[in-house]
Design brief:
The structure is a homotetramer.
Chain A: E1 5-11, H1 15-30, E2 36-43, H2 47-57, E3 61-63, H3 66-71, E4 77-80, H4 87-96, E5 100-104, H5 111-124, E6 128-131, H6 138-148, E7 155-163, H7 180-183, H8 187-202, E8 206-214, E9 219-221, E10 234-236, E11 242-249, E12 254-260, E13 269-276, E14 279-284, E15 290-295, E16 305-309, H9 332-347, H10 355-374, E17 378-379
Parallel strand pairs in A: 1-2, 1-4, 2-3, 4-5, 5-6, 7-12
Antiparallel strand pairs in A: 7-13, 8-11, 8-17, 9-10, 11-12, 13-14, 14-15, 15-16
Organism (chains A, B, C, D): Paenibacillus agricola
Pfam family, one (chains A, B, C, D): GFO_IDH_MocA_C3
Keywords (chains A, B, C, D): Oxidoreductase
Chain lengths: ~375, ~375, ~375, ~375
C-alpha cells in the first residue's frame, strides 16, 4: 500500500454522498492503490446537517460554503454530488482552482454547460471523471471484455431499460428531481443517462435518435416548509416521468431505450441485452453479479444462455473481493470507479468515463429532448 | 357435444396449416362446441405435397387450386394459411362465395388490401377472424380480465418484444418471408403484428407511431431450383430484419415495440410488460402458462411480482385442460382462437380479433413503415 | 402412415384416462406409427359416467364391467388407469386373456402383487409397460442422451423433489388416494414413484434406502354419499402426506428424494438435479421444455448453467412437434410413452419402462416403507 | 455515534479474517453503535504474513502467538477465525482471560469440546457468539419475522441445500479442510452447519436425525512443502465430501439437508424452502436480497410465489444500507452479526447465535455422524 495520498473534498452529502464516502473508506481494504484517498472535508449549506454527516461518514472537516472548500490548499480533488444544476459552476470553479474533479451524472443540465465544463477541464490539465458507476460492475466489465475480444462479433442490437417506481404516488411531493431548473430533466437525465453510458461503453457512439418524453402526473403537492403535513398548493412538474427513444449507433447497430419512474414493481430495474452476430449478453442491476451469455458457436443442441456469476478469478475484480459465488452489492460499483479516478490522478492520465464522455452523453440526452419536441429524428451533433 | 357441424376448407398446409389442423382435431376433445369442425378439404399447388399433407393431418379431401376449394358446396368456412400476399385475393373470393373466413396474420401486405378485405367481409355478412393466437393463451386472457376489472388502474406503459434468431446466418437462403412482394414486410409484419395485437387487446388503440426498420443483411443466396447446393446468385432482401417503434395509445399510455430476427439465443421471445397505476403484469411466450403480477396495494414489505401459473380453476380454460401446475403448450393458443371462430359462426356474431382488428393492425404496421421513411411521427389514420 | 392397427381397451376414465385418451387421438397426427391405435372401448362401473366419457373422449364403445372388456376379441391391448389396488388383478387377467398391457403407476400396492404381475407378463409373452410418462419429456430424453454419452461423467448426486400442495386444507375430504387399501401409500406411491423412475432411468439402480413417511393430518371428513355437504364423520388417513428418503445407487452415487402434498405454492413441482464429475443438469416439470446444463469443461470465466429449451432439431422429438422455442405441454409426455408402447407391440420387443421397471420401483417404495418402520437402512432386496 | 469502544483481537487472518475485518471497518459507517470496534491486534504464526495482513486490513498491531494476544490488557474481545480444531483451546483460554469471544463455525470438532467451550463461557460471564452469518441476511431476518408472526402457520417442511463444487478436481491437493483432525468433518461441518443454524433459527430444535456422509475421492495429492509442483505422495481424505440427512424437528416438522462440494456449477448454493400451513418461503444465498413468499390466503387465481427484494424500509436493515432495489452483498451478513456481538457486549446480554447454539448445532452434526456409522436414526441427545 503506497504512502502517497490524495485529499478529497466532497460537495453534497445525501444518497450519492453516502455511496461515494463509503467507497473512499472501503477502497484501501480491497485494492493496492497508487494513491490513498484521504477524506478531508465535505461541504453543505445546512451547518448542522453537514456536521453530522461528516462525523457519521468519516470526513475530517466540513464547510457550509462549497467555494471555501475548493479554495482550501489541503484538498487535491473535488467530488461533486449535488443536484444537477450546480455541477457546471462547481466543476469549473474547482478545475480553475487546480483540483481534479469527479462529478456525478448527468454532467450538467444542458449541452452548453457540459461543453464549458469539458473546456475548463482541458484548460486545467487536471483529471476529470463522470460517475457512471454501473460500468464498474464486474459483470459489465466482463461484458466489455467479451465484446472487445470479438466474442459477440458485429453488434446488431442494444436494448436498455431503466425502470423504477418510486414516483407513482400522485401525492408524492414535488422535489428538485421534478423541477427542470434544478435537474435538467426527470427520468431522462437520471436514468436514461446511465443506459446511454452503458451503451456507449459497450457498443459505441450514437449517431442519431428519435423519441418521446412523457409526464404522466403534471402537478404535485408543494411541501409547505412550515407545516409539511398541510398541502395547500400544487406545483407544476416540468420534467418527464418517462422517456423512450430509438437510436442508431455509428457502427450500424440499433438501440432502444426506456427510462421511467412509473413501472410498478420495478424498484431499480436497470437492464440491457446486446445481440451480436456471434452471441448475446444480458445484464440486470437487480442481479448485478450475473451476466447471461449466449454463444452462437456452442454445440447444436447445447445452445442457451449461460448464467454466469462473475465472481471467479477469471472475472474482473475476481481476486479482489470474496470468492466464487460470494456476491457483491451495489456499493462496489463505486469502488471500481473511484479506483480509476485515483489511478488517473496517480498517472496523470484521464480515466474513462471522462467529461468528454459526459458531454457525449449530454448530447444524446439533449438530442432526445429535441426529438421529443420536433417529433423527428435528430442527429447527435 | 352438439351434432351440428361446420365444414372447413383450409388453403395452405405448411407450419401454420399444421397448427390449425391440430386445433381442429383437438377442439372437440376439450370443449363442448356449438359446432363441430369437419376437416373437409385442403388445397395447395403441389399435388403430391397436398395429398400427403391431407392424409397426415386428417383432411378428408384436397384440391390443387384454391379457387375450386372455395366454390365447393360442401364447405362452410375457409381458413387461409398461405403466404401473406395471397390473403386478400383468397379472402375476398371466399367471402363472395359465401364462406366464413379465418385468415392468418398479418391480414394483408398493405392497408389498401386490408380495407378491401374488411369491406368484402361486411358486404358478405359472414364471420371473419384474423389469427392472432397469442391472445388465447390462458395467461393473456387472465391478463385481460385483470385489466378489464381495473386491477392495474390507468395504464402508463406497454413494452413489447418479439425476438427471434433464425435468420442470423448470412448463408440462409432467400425465401418468401424475405421478399416484400410476397410478405409485405419482414420481422415487422411477422412478429410486430403479434405484439400490436396484444397491445391493442390489452391496452387499446394506437394513435401515432415513430420508428425504424432495419435490414442487416441486404443480400442472400438465391436457391437454385435445379441444384440447391450450388449457390450461384445472390438476391436482394427488400424487407426488414428488425423493426423498432414507439407509440402513443389513444388513452395516453406509451408503448415501445421491437421485433427482430437477429437476437441470438432468443428462439421465440415474445414478451410484454404492462405498467399501470395499481399494478403491473409480465408475460413471456417461452413460459406461456405464467403471468407475473405485481399489485401496488399489497402489504408493504410483501410487495413483489407474483409468479402465477395460470392453470387453476379461476383462470381462463382452467377447468378445460389438465390440472393446476400441468402446463399446456403453444398449440393450445390455436384451440382458444378457433373455438371463438366456431362460436362466432354458431351465433352469427363476429368474434375478436376480426378483420376490423386486422385492418387496425395493418394501419399501425404501415404507419411505422411510413415513419421509417419520413423519419417522423405518423398518425394511425 | 401404416394401415396396421392396434385396438385399445382402457379401464378407468378419470384424469389419467383423459390424458391417455388424448394421446391416442393425437399420436397419428405427429408420428409415423407402425401401428395406429384404435380407441375401441373403455370401461367403468358407472354406466352413465362411462357412456358420457366415451362420447366425449372418442371411444367407440364402453363396458361397465372391466372383465367383459378384457374378454372382447376386438381388443388387442389393455390400458389400466384405475385406482392402484385394482392394477394387479386387472393386469394379470388381461395378460392371461392375451392382451398387451399398459398400466398406470405405481405398478401395484405392494411388491408381492408387482411380482405376480411381472410373472404373468413373462408367462404371457405380451408387451407390458408402466406409465412413467415424465421419462418422455424431450428435455428428460435429452438428459438421458447426455448421460449415456458420458457428458456428465461419473455421477455423484441425484436430488429429486416432487412437491404438491393440493391436500393442505384439513377440510379436504378423504378419498381413495388417502386410503392405504386402495392406493398403497400417499404422496410416496403417487409422487415418489415418478422420481424413482427418473432416477433409475438416468442414474441407475438403487441399492439401499433410509427414510421416513409422515402424516401431518391424521383424520379427514368422510364424504356423506347422501348429503356431501354435511360432514358428520371423520375418517382416518392411513397413508403418508409426505415421504423423504436418502438412497445409495449401485454405482456409488447418492440420492435424496422428497415427495409431499404439503408444500404450499408448489402446484406440481417435480424437479431434479444431477451432478457428475464432468457436468450437471437440472429439470423442472413446471418448465418442462427446459434442461439446464452445466459443463465443467467450458472455458473458465464462461462457466454457468445453460438454459436450453429442448425444441431444436437436435433434441428428441425436435422435428416432430413445432419449431424452436415453441413449447409443448404436459400432455406430450404421454405421446412419447404410448408411442413406445405401440412400437413395442409392432416389434414384439418390450419397451421401457416395463413391468420389470415397475417392480424395481415398487421394491424401492417398499424398502422406504420398511425403513420408515424399522428406522434404519434397508436394502432393495 | 458513541465514544465507547471495544478493542478487538482476532486470531487467524485468511478468508474469514478478511470478512470479519471488513465488517469491523464498515460497521460504524452504517450503524449507530453502542460500542465502536477498535481493530487492536491480530495474530498468526507466520510473522511476515500476519504483518502484511495487519497492514492491509487495518489492524493496529499483530502477534505471532495467539496466547500473547489473549493476554494483552488492551484487548476486550477475541474473534477466532482459525481452523476448527483450534477453536476450543483458544476460546476457553480467551474466556478464562476475561475476554468476550466471537468464534467461527462450526464451534468445535466434536460435541465434547463444544460443551467445554459453553461451560467456560458460562463460567466467565462473558459474551459468547458463534459466527453463523447467514442469519443476518436481511431476507433471512425478514423470513424470521414472518414466521414469528405466524404468517406461515404450523411448519411442515424445511428443505435445505448447501451445494458447492470447488473440490471436484481429483488433483486438488489435500488441505486442512480435508483432514478430520483439523476440521472435524468436511462438507458436513463446513456447510451443513450453516443449514442447521438456519433451520434452528427459523423452525426450531431438531429431535432426531438419520443420514449418510460420503467421500467420493478418497486420496488426494499431498503438497510437497519444498516443491509444491511435484506431487510425489497421496494422502488419505478422512472427511466427507458430502453429507445428506433427514431430521425431525421437535415441533413435528420434517427436514431434509444436503451439503456437498461435488455439485458442479453450484459455486455457493446455500438454499432453503420452508412450507407451513399458511405459506411458504424460499431463499438462495446466490440471490441473497430476495425472499420468495407464497401466502395461501392470497386471492384465488392470484396465488403464486412473490419475488420480494428485501431492501425496503419495511425490511430489516432497510433504512440502514442503500435504497429499494439497491442490493447488498455477502459481506453485509457479517455486519449484522458483529453488530449483535457489539450490542451484546454493550448490554451484557448474550446475543444469538451463542455458544449454546453452537453446541446444539454440534450435537446435530455429531448425531448425523453417528447415524452414518450406525445406519439408523439417532436422537440429538
Amino acid at each position: 500500500m503506497g504512502d502517497k495520498q490524495v485529499r478529497i473534498g466532497m460537495i453534497g452529502y445525501k444518497f450519492m454522498g453516502k455511496a461515494h464516502s463509503h467507497a473512499y473508506r472501503d477502497l484501501p481494504f480491497f485494492f493496492d492503490l497508487p494513491l490513498v484517498p484521504v477524506m478531508q472535508a465535505i461541504s453543505g449549506r445546512d451547518e448542522d446537517g453537514v456536521h453530522t454527516a461528516a462525523q457519521k461518514m468519516g470526513w475530517a472537516s466540513h464547510e457550509s460554503d462549497w467555494r471555501k472548500l475548493i479554495q482550501r490548499d489541503d484538498i487535491d480533488a473535488i467530488d461533486i454530488v449535488t443536484p444537477n444544476h450546480l455541477h457546471a459552476e462547481i466543476a469549473i470553479a474547482a478545475l480553475e482552482a487546480g483540483k481534479h474533479v469527479l462529478c456525478e451524472k448527468p454532467l450538467s443540465v444542458n449541452v452548453e454547460d457540459a461543453k464549458r465544463m469539458l473546456a475548463a477541464a482541458h484548460k486545467s490539465g487536471k483529471v476529470h471523471m463522470i460517475c457512471h458507476n454501473y460500468r464498474f460492475s464486474p459483470a459489465v466489465q466482463f461484458a466489455k471484455k467479451l465484446i472487445r475480444e470479438g466474442r459477440l462479433g458485429r453488434i446488431y442490437h442494444f436494448r436498455g431499460l431503466y425502470l423504477q417506481d418510486w414516483l407513482m404516488d400522485p401525492d408524492s411531493p414535488l422535489e428538485w428531481r421534478m423541477r427542470k431548473e434544478q435537474s435538467g430533466s426527470g427520468a431522462h437525465g437520471d436514468l436514461a443517462s446511465h443506459m446511454i453510458d452503458l451503451a456507449r461503453f459497450l457498443v459505441g457512439d450514437i449517431a442519431e435518435v428519435v423519441g418521446t418524453m412523457e409526464t404522466f402526473i403534471g402537478a404535485r403537492p408543494l411541501p409547505d416548509q412550515e407545516a409539511p403535513e398541510e398541502i395547500t398548493e400544487m406545483g407544476e412538474v416540468d420534467v418527464d416521468d418517462a422517456s423512450a427513444f430509438i437510436v442508431k449507433f455509428k457502427n450500424g447497430a440499433i438501440g432502444t431505450f426506456e427510462a421511467t419512474r412509473f413501472a410498478g414493481g420495478n424498484r431499480n430495474g436497470n437492464r440491457f441485452e446486446i445481440n451480436g452476430e456471434r452471441g448475446s449478453i444480458r445484464w440486470d442491476l437487480e442481479s448485478l453479479n450475473v451476466l447471461e451469455v449466449y454463444l452462437k458457436d456452442d454445440e447444436a443442441g447445447l445452445q442457451g444462455f449461460r448464467n454466469i456469476t462473475c465472481t471467479e478469478s477469471e472475472h474482473p475484480y475476481g481476486n479482489v473481493y470474496w470468492a466464487p459465488g460470494h456476491n457483491i452489492g451495489y456499493e462496489h460499483t463505486f469502488l471500481g470507479l473511484i479506483r480509476e479516478f485515483l489511478n488517473g490522478i496517480a498517472t496523470s492520465r484521464c480515466p474513462q468515463p471522462s467529461f468528454a464522455d459526459g458531454l457525449q452523453n449530454q448530447m444524446v440526452l439533449e438530442a432526445v429532448e429535441k426529438s421529443s419536441q420536433s417529433r423527428q429524428w435528430v442527429s447527435v451533433e
